Amino acid sequence: METWDAIRARRNVRTYRDDPVPAADLDRIAEAGWRAPSASNRQHRNLIVVTDREQLRRLSTVWQGAGHIAGAAAAIALVVPRPADERTKVIDQYDLGQATYAMMLAATDLGVGSGHSAVGDQAAAREILGVPDDHDVAFLIGLGYPADRPLTPVLKPDRLPFDEVVRRGSW
Length: 171
Ligand SMILES: Cc1cc2nc3c(=O)[nH]c(=O)nc-3n(C[C@H](O)[C@H](O)[C@H](O)COP(=O)(O)O)c2cc1C
What we know:
Layout: H1 3-9, H2 23-35, E1 46-50, H3 53-59, E2 74-81, H4 86-109, E3 113-118, H5 122-129, E4 135-144, H6 162-165
Antiparallel strand pairs: 1-2, 2-4, 3-4
Helix pairs in contact: 1-4, 2-4
Bound molecules: flavin mononucleotide (FMN).
Flavin mononucleotide is lined by residues 11-12, 14, 63, 65, 115-118.
């Protein structure tokens, strides 16, 4: 898919077909996250690729907005070391967002739908994924082929008016 088409076609996909995503495609999606930039290249992240159905089902309970993970073909958990201070926390969250979006675009390019979930119950998420206590499971990305409709450019995205958001030269 053309980059511009992938940017326009990405949307949160929360219902997935049963078929698995090939391991090579999951690796490519994870590689996009691995390649993502980070402040001072410090790479405060680990990515855990999950395909086990029982693990996915359990992960779907760690946040009220995680229900879609139960039916995903796979999920990638973004794990971050517990930040030492507020500044580190802010920058780590920015970096995690970049890695997330890189993976979502790589998924879209492969026709794979992706859907964010936050994580509420850290203790449960850590236990399900075997994550050490000094790390947090920051976000989950559900992955799978869309059950509703294929990924094609969204013609009228649900966004504030372009000219309200984008200003030229000054506020
Ligand atoms: C930081 C962040 C957290 C999000 N958490 C959730 C979530 O827990 N569950 C969910 O279903 N969607 C979640 N979303 C998806 C947003 O609701 C979605 O991106 C937004 O409504 C725009 O829709 P779109 O992605 O389809 O363009 C999250 C998105 C972001 C950026």
